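[09:14] KT: can someone run the structure on this one? pasting the chain below
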Amino acid sequence: MFSAVTAKLIRDAMNDQKDRERCRKPIQGWIIPDQWTAMKARFDASRYKERSEKAKAARHKASKWYGGSIPMTEHFRRLVSKGGDANMVTVFLATHRKDGKLIDERAEPTYSDYLKLQERAAASAPTAGEAGTSLQPAQTSSTDELWVTTAGGLL
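[09:31] RB: done, C-alpha cells below
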C-alpha cells in the first residue's frame, strides 16, 4: 500500500513539474536542477514517449463497464448464487449493461458478432437426442469458446 501511494505522489509531482516547464515556470525548490536535467532526458527518450502515447491511447478508449473493482471470479460466484448460468457471456452482459442497453460502442458489435457465431454453431451442431448425445454438459463450455472466439482472449 505504501509503495503504491508513494509512487502516485512521485508520479503526480513529476507531471506537475513537466506542466510547469511547459509554461516556462521555474523548477520547484525540492528538485535539484542537475537531477531534473537527467529526468528530462529520460522523459525525452523514445522508449518513454512510446509508452506514454500507448498509455494515453488506452486511457482515451471508450471501454466502459459497470463491474466496479469486483473481480470477475466474484461476478461468476454471484451469478451462480442467484441461480443464473455463469458463463463469460452472462458476466459480460451483467457488467456491460445499464438500463438494459449495452453501454459502449465496442460492446454492441462484439455481442452481435457472438450471437451470429452462436446461430451458425447451432445450425451446424447435432440436435439433442441424436445418436444418444446430450448437449447440456458441453453447452457452457461451447458458449465460453464461442465468446472467446468473438471477443478474443484466452479460455
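[09:33] KT: thanks! The first helix runs from residue 2 to 22.
[09:34] RB: yep, looked fine to me
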